[in-house]
Amino acid sequence: MAHPTAFDVQPLPGASFGGLIDVGDIGTFVAAAEAAPDALLNAMIDGHGFLLLKGFRAIADDPGLLVALSRLFGEEVENYRLTTTDDNCIHADHPEILVLTNLPPCDRQPPAKPEPALLPDGSLPVQFPLRRGWHTDQSFRRPPPDISLFCALVPAPRGQGQTLYADGIGAYEALSDEMKARIEDLEGLHIVPGSGRAEYAVRAGETPRELEPREAPQRQPVVRVHPVTGQKALYLCEAGQMDWVEGPLVGMEPGIHGDGARLLYELMEHFTQPRFAYAHEWEAGDLIVYDNRCTIHCATWFDAERHDRVMWRTTVWGNPGPLYDGEERSWMVS
Ligand SMILES: [Fe+2]
């Protein structure tokens, strides 16, 4: 689907999906974006839910700019103070901004290095199960969010702290007809990280903790229909954000050794093949807009002892699709 846009959108180098815009003069760009409010959203949608904007260093001195840009992508930009998010990771003046950094007071540490750290051809391992941690943001909520904006203020050095993305539309379309039919009506059971129900927690024999009603596992379709385009996409997480006690797949044998686990592994291995994936090497001022309804992503290791990394994220809500019509917010129930 092609939309006229006010911007020059290039294909994303090194990827089979995604768009790239070199922002140039910030004032001109923002004025153009505000004059054609759907142009950026459509550019992202045309890229199967991925848009890289290069040149937003101005956000570091003007955090309100990130919030204003986020508003171009949907009805509501999440206020993190209204969630259970740790205050230490919320921007002091802009509660819509989640600050992800290894610096205090947030002190968020990167994931472990995979073994091997690089493949024999020198490339970064992206494919599950060698790479773990693939997820779509906040899929443990119903309705789930639409879009995240993720911006590098202080990136890790080149070769570290990349973010990996995978194209759920491309991966779905490449499935066999038999597999498409098999998963058409299937649901995954998603859970907030830290519940004791993650794959590694179950493997380690942890006792799952008592959950608040607002933390209850949530069903989500494995095949998600995009509310704007009608395109189908795989919608799945793996180790930390699926319920490995009752799930991971509803109606299938549960647990880490069950039929549900086997099918989830098969789908994740397919989803994260290099042909559907992209590894982003961050530069200061890079802003990635990703659609959680049709992409997954994954953080990578960086040397947090030696390097600082500061990233800001916002989350946009409001168009999850008719499947969620009229639902109360699962994370607001008491
Ligand atoms: Fe994420």
Tell me the structural class.
Answer: alpha+beta
Low-confidence stretches: none
Tell me what portion of residues adopts beta-strand conformation: 15-25%
Q: Give the topology string: H per helix, E per strand.
A: EEHHEHEEEEHHEHEEEHEEEE
Q: What is the total tally of β strands?
A: 15
Please provide a written account of the structure.
- The chain is of the alpha+beta class and 334 residues long.
- The protein is 18% helix and 20% strand.
- The protein contains seven helices and 15 strands.
- The strands form four sheets. Strands 1, 2, 3, 4, 5, 6, 13 and 15 form an eight-stranded mixed β-sheet that branches. Strands 12-7-14 form a three-stranded antiparallel β-sheet.
- A hairpin with a 6-residue loop joins β10 (223-225) and β11 (232-234).
- α1 (26-35) packs across α2.
- The longest helix is centred in the last third of the chain and has 13 residues, at 259-271.
- The protein is globular.
- The model has no long low-confidence stretch (mean pLDDT 94).
- The site of fe (ii) ion (FE2) has 3 residues, from loops.
Provide the descriptors you would attach to this structure in a database record.
334 residues, alpha+beta, Double-stranded beta-helix, 3-stranded antiparallel sheet, 7 helices, 18% helix
Brief sketch in words of this structure:
With 334 residues, the protein is α+β, with helices and mostly antiparallel strands. The chain has seven helices and 15 strands. It has one domain (10-319): Clavaminate synthase-like (Double-stranded beta-helix).
